[in-house]
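Researcher: Next sequence.
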Amino acid sequence: MENKEVYRQLSETLAKRGGPYPGMDMPEFYPMAEALFTPAEAAISNLMPEGIFTLEKLLPKTDMTKDELVELLKGMAPKGLCFTIEVGGTRYYNGPPFVPGIMEWQFMHGEVTDEAKKIAKLVHTYMDAVDVVIGSRDKAFPDGRVIPINQTVEPGKKVRTY
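Model: Next structure:
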């Protein structure tokens, strides 16, 4: 499969996963996707079942051996391109949405490298382009919350021990 087609399918895959910045087939998507995913990683991401799954559910969709697939997924997990956890001796996987998920994983380690700067610019360009297409969005929940207690809280300073 041609790389362009794998990444176009990745835009559809990420769109199905939802989130405020779903995959969109637009020029700004492709440089970002190519910086985050190798063609093989994009192809496997496109095959991932919805929700949490085991290797046995994904393996029949590929033409890879079990060991090859395990190695590819092991490489994707530290990059945030798939999530994995072992519970009771069984390893589970999940294909995350772009946001929240893949995008945050790129920057959560706080490393300032040339590669991180490049990805940050590509992500920012893509998110700005999505904002132009989608427009303003209402928030599903408030950023801050007030809990009414029906009392006046007097201001003051008090030093507390830790």
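Model: The first strand starts at residue 52 and ends at 54. The beta strands are 52-54, 83-87, 90-94.
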